[in-house]
Specification:
- Helix content is about 35%, strand content about 25%.
- The protein contains 25 helices and 32 strands.
- It has an 8-stranded antiparallel beta sheet. A 7-stranded mixed beta sheet has the order 2-3-1-4-5-6-7, sandwiched between helices. Strands 18, 19, 20, 21 and 22 form a 5-stranded antiparallel beta sheet that branches.
- Helix 4 packs parallel to helix 5.
- The N and C termini lie far apart (about 80 Å).
- The structure holds guanosine-5'-diphosphate.
- Its main location: cytoplasm.
Length: about 725
């Protein structure tokens, strides 16, 4: 039977008309795992008895123990629609907010998304985040409204009330789509029950219905309601099986790889669309050069590193020699495979339009472009919704494990690109920065359990950002030999430009003209927009000089100095954010020997460091939104927990006897929140957090926080002055 399944899958793989690449996205607990399991069971990929119970997609023990999905795993399933077989490649996405980064990369691989929403709770913060990520990648949404049984049996709504509630929810989702991407909305991307882009049902009880499904089965809305009220879920599941309603919707309304790539390639690749490779990707041409983008890397105990990704053009075969973006030597592909459940099946060949898993790509990281075309323009990098804001220092418990720890840290960073590992040169510690306390706890467990290295970690610390509130300069930065001088001014980057960077809408890779137009539209001066020399994280280096000899050939070193400062600002060595550095003049030695790295990098660096300290350099601290769902009588205790942490309550709504508190608090105050809210509410609060950006640190705290950071980093405790950075 298994052999037959493999044959069916491989046959379908080479016919893009018959393929759908999709992801299921949802707020935590809205039923993504239950839905995935039951879809797989429906397609005969796992036994019906096990579905729902074994949390199939959560292949990691850690995830099962915590009941959350962390890594993206992939499965393929075959579904029959209108007498024809189709292949649905399903990429799993994490439901927990602390791991938002993974959703973004999964979205790069797929063309469509099933957005799952709990009928009782409605859209939640994470629903919005994942929907926004999907639309940004031009991934088309359809809607599955889950837990409809609760509406009827817990909230006791009648058929009419139920219809009104579902209608409201659909309207709300459309409003979100319109607000997030009006261009796609106008192109017809909205969800519509009458059309069939909405299904609703109960993943737990294995039934779902949509308007086309009502027509197909003859079961009416009222009948669905009656079965549910009578708690006869079994009959309903027989008449309206979940997988049929959902997969029919996927096949009918989500695009084929060919249709999707004709649009999506314009968003994720900025090379020449008229070139051979451009045309090949736009049409998913399996006979052209290979263009593969890596969206996930995982460790397989037997096969080693497995790189999963989307194949946009060409075909993958064993033994192929490929270029990996950023690597100097070619890599050789060893195994080529597709996923079926937790298994990876080796196949001979995978053509364009599919999601594939390969081994042998030694140099690949998440986001790598893999190609057979020398010098191919790389894919646009994947931008993450949240940034690392919490860090811990990691040490091996036993000295002898140190070399192993270094290797393991390299591995976990490769597997999870939202994790940043750095070595603190001053103290020799390894620092691990992630998106939240829980994120780092999970990684620490993984290091100990999967990788077998016992470690100790320090309590979590906040990662701040440095920024400037004023303007300063021109300030002169001199090289140690005094023969090279750079004059820079610094100022806060325009808010509109920050927004462009945050949304990944501008990069150094895109065509210069396109970038310039976007910057000018966002409020940047024309001459400055023309002189963009570098965009690093959320900082920009602008060169507004004219006709300075040797500057071109020195620029790379100048920018190296710039990047060093942006990685570690002058005030506290925390990363910089929202800084615009403008080069207004430069003097360079005519002999290249006297303007090497040891001269130019420090000159460039010191000018920027001094200028920033003159421009009201200050710290920004990360905040998180905190959503708490709590019974009415425990509300006071929950609200106090937030208010006692420099937090603010933004909104409160009630649903039945539950109150939903929407609030915001600094990350630094939220450590230990899990335990405290549990005791404050007798364990009856459910809560989740979401990254909420950076805000200025209260003025009366700055000195203390900065000194604390400096001391920890082995720097002198006193706040630095501009003169400290200027060589006399
Ligand atoms: P995920 O976090 O989005 O993957 O959510 P899960 O699939 O783990 O589901 C969260 C909880 O909701 C579990 O306890 C499920 O049993 C329950 N659940 C899922 N679907 C339904 C449903 O249709 N009706 C009801 N009543 N509960 C459901």
């Amino acid at each position: 039977r298994r052999k037959k399944m493999v044959e069916r899958v491989t046959a379908l793989m080479s016919n893009p008309e018959m393929i759908r690449n999709i992801g299921i996205v949802a707020h935590i607990d809205h039923g993504k795992t239950t839905l995935s399991d039951n879809l797989l069971a429906g397609a005969g990929m796992i036994s019906k008895e096990l579905a729902g119970r074994q949390l199939f997609m959560d292949s990691d023990e850690e995830e099962q123990a915590r009941g959350i999905t962390i890594d993206s795993a992939n499965v393929s399933m075959v579904h029959e629609y209108n007498g024809k077989e189709y292949l649905i490649n399903l990429i799993d996405t994490p439901g927990h907010v602390d791991f938002g980064g993974d959703v973004t990369r999964a979205m790069r691989a797929v063309d469509g998304a099933v957005v799952v929403i709990d009928a009782v709770e409605g859209t939640m913060p994470q629903t919005e985040t994942v929907l926004r990520q999907a639309l940004k990648e031009h991934v088309k949404p359809v809607l599955f409204i889950n837990k409809v049984d609760r509406l009827i049996n817990e909230l006791q709504v009648d058929a009419q009330e139920m219809q009104i509630r579902l209608g409201k929810l659909i309207d709300h989702v459309n409003k979100l789509i319109k607000g997030m991407n009006e261009e796609r909305y106008n192109a017809g991307w909205r969800v519509d029950a009458a059309e069939g882009t909405v299904a609703f049902g109960s993943a737990l009880y294995n039934w779902a219905i949509s308007v086309p499904m009502m027509q197909k089965t003859g079961v009416s809305f009222q009948q669905v309601f009656d079965y549910c009220r009578a708690e006869d879920m079994k009959s309903l599941a027989e008449k309206c099986p979940l997988h049929e309603a959902v997969n029919d919707m996927v096949i009918r309304f989500l695009p084929t790889p060919i249709v999707a790539q004709a649009d999506r390639v314009n968003v994720i690749w900025h090379g020449d669309k008229e070139s051979k490779i451009g045309k090949a990707m736009l049409s998913a041409d399996a006979t052209a050069d290979l263009a593969f983008m890596v969206t996930d890397i995982s460790m397989d105990p037997h096969a080693g590193e497995v790189a999963t990704g989307r194949l946009f053009s060409g075909s993958l075969t064993r033994g192929m020699e490929v270029y990996v973006s950023g690597a100097s030597k070619k890599n050789r592909i060893q195994q080529v495979g597709v996923f079926m459940g937790p298994e990876r099946l080796e196949v001979e060949n995978i053509p364009a339009g599919n999601i594939a898993a390969v081994t042998g790509l030694r140099d690949a990281i998440v986001g790598s472009t893999v190609t057979t075309l020398d010098g191919m323009e790389a894919f646009e990098s994947i931008t993450h919704a949240s940034e690392p804001v919490v860090t811990v220092a990691v040490e091996a418990k036993h000295m002898k494990d140190l070399p192993k720890l270094v290797e393991v840290l390299r591995q976990v960073a490769k597997e999870d690109p939202t994790l940043k590992i750095t070595l603190n040169e001053e103290t020799g510690e390894h620092l691990m920065a992630g998106m939240g306390e829980l994120h780092l706890e999970v990684i620490a467990h993984r290091i100990e359990r999967d990788k077998g290295v016992e470690i100790t970690t320090t309590p979590p610390l906040v990662v701040y950002r440095e920024t400037i509130r004023g303007t300063a300069g021109p300030v002169e930065g001199k090289s140690p030999n005094r023969h090279n001088r750079f004059y820079v001014t610094v100022e806060p980057l325009e808010e509109g430009v920050r927004e462009l960077i945050r949304n990944g809408e501008i990069s150094m890779r895109m065509p210069e003209v396109e970038r310039r137009e976007k910057l000018i539209a966002a409020g940047m001066d024309k001459d400055e927009a023309k002189g963009i020399a570098d965009i690093f994280e959320s900082n920009i280096y602008v060169d507004v000089t004219k006709g300075i000899q040797y500057l071109n050939e020195t620029m790379e070193l100048v920018l190296e100095g710039f990047q060093e400062v942006m990685k570690a600002g002058p005030l506290s060595r925390e990363p910089c954010m929202g800084v615009k550095v403008k080069l207004t003049d430069a003097k360079l030695h005519e002999d290249a020997v006297h303007r090497g790295p040891a001269q130019v990098i420090p000159a460039s660096r010191q000018g920027i460091q001094a200028a920033m300290l003159m421009a009201d350099d200050t710290l920004l601290e990360p905040h998180q939104k905190v959503f708490i769902q709590v019974p009415q009588d425990q509300m006071g205790g929950a609200a106090k927990e937030i208010q006692g942490r420099r937090g603010v309550i933004i909104n409160m709504t009630s649903e039945g006897d539950m109150t939903i508190i929407e609030s915001k608090a600094p990350v630094s105050e939220l450590f230990g929140f899990a335990g405290d809210i549990r005791s404050a509410t007798e364990g009856r609060a459910m809560w989740s957090t979401e990254f909420a950006g950076f805000d200025t640190l209260p003025a009366n705290m700055t000195t203390e926080v900065v000194s604390g950071i400096r001391e920890r980093k082995g720097l002198k405790k006193e706040l630095p002055q501009a003169s400290d950075y200027l060589s006399m």
